[in-house]
Amino acid sequence: MQIHDLIGIGFGPSNISLAITLEEKKQEGYDINSFFIEKQPSFAWHANMMLDNTHMQISFLKDLATMRNPSSHFTFINYLHQKQRLQDFINLKTFFPSRHEFNDYLAWAASHFNDRCAYGEEVLEVLPEKRNDEVTLLRVRSRDANGMIRERLGRNLIVSVGGVPSIPECFRPLKGDVRVFHSNSYLREIERHKDAKRIAVVGAGQSAAEIFMDLHNRPSAPHVDLIMRARAIKPSDDSPFVNEIFNADFTDFVFSRSERDRAALLEEFWHTNYAAPDLVLIEQIFNAFYQQKVTGDARHRFLRRHEVVSVQALPEEGIQLLLRDLNAGHEHCATYDAIVLATGYRRDYHKSLLNPLLPYMNNFSVDRNYRLKSTPNFRPAVFLQGACESSHGLSDTLLSVTAVRTNEIGHALLSEVNQPEIKQTGTPIRAVASR
């Protein structure tokens, strides 16, 4: 079997940025043989939330490379130059490109590494390869679109799988009911409900706000209930001093704190990243409800300070929610044709994916360079991207530190790879079975 220096699981922004970092390390004389596995059939970034008129909430300068190497070929500025749109973008006078344009930038960057990524394969598990009592390699098993199981061996591993939809407990029994879906599949699933008359959006963050406005502007004019436990929709705080928590050097500060201090920091600044839409979007929602008062057409309801107590799937009528008004203290039922759960993401999928390695892991804790701590007889370096918020701060799941983080991981990886050694390289390995 051919062996890779590094196998990456997932090929979204974080691992694309790492691929760029490793590519540019070649100019310094290093050559790490890396290969990535992505379950989507081609590159896509939040494809089902590519709503019209949506923009980035982060400066284009925090792209895949600029904060690490402003002269990189892979900066957003050079992308604009390559696409012959640089002058026009300058005339926009904005730091925040549309989400569609930034997705195109990411796809452009990813296209440079098509020979190093297997699309359309879902990684099933990662197994330890032992020599005597020492784990020396990792066997990564994946399944392609045809059901073929493929295996690859790697000396090191990086897991960048993004978030898994967080589904509130009361909705979990309805898994598989097409009338209830998470925001990560919004555009695809809402097509099934073009004729829906009553829709509920559950959540208080950017996605909930964007989906509400998208439904408000649809020609089918559905009635929409925006449901949240919060008393008000709070705007994200992007003021300069607060934004310093997303600076790369703030990661050092967070990591150096005690577990108690880290938790306090996360709580203090939680609304900079969660349940905090853009102010302009909040103003659009407020205006929509105000215009209802002007016209007397109460098409939508803002059910603030409401929580979902229970959910019942009715065969014909729709999905019935038992809602508790936290202000009034009473409960009432409402029935919907479709329910969108804009309820965020979990960042713990790596634990199930790496479960076979659990005997060698120190409770999946990481060091400063995002490497999982392991037992002395476990030689591979396993890195995490986007799953270290509790230890590295709120910026961990964002683009803010991506370029700098991949540089740190790159340096740590180079210390693990024995460059002078003559290694087998190449694209993997073998197909072993079909199921």
Word description of this protein:
The protein is an alpha/beta fold and 435 residues long. The chain folds into two domains: 3-163 and 347-434, FAD/NAD(P)-binding domain; 166-235 and 274-341, FAD/NAD(P)-binding domain. The protein contains 13 helices and 20 strands. It has helices at residues 13-25, 76-82, 86-92, 99-111, 186-190, 206-216, 240-243, 248-256, 259-268, 279-295, 349-353, 389-392, 402-416, and strands at residues 3-9, 34-38, 117-119, 121-131, 134-144, 148-159, 164-165, 180-182, 198-202, 223-227, 301-303, 306-314, 318-325, 331-336, 338-341, 345-346, 361-366, 372-374, 382-384, 430-434. The strands form five sheets. Strands 1, 2, 3, 4, 5, 6, 19 and 20 form an eight-stranded mixed sheet that branches. The protein has a five-stranded parallel sheet with strand order 8-15-9-10-11. The two termini are 22 Å apart. Mean pLDDT is 94; it is low at 419-435. Pathway: Siderophore biosynthesis. It holds the Pfam family Lys_Orn_oxgnase. One of its GO terms (molecular function) is oxidoreductase activity. One of its GO terms (biological process) is intracellular iron ion homeostasis.
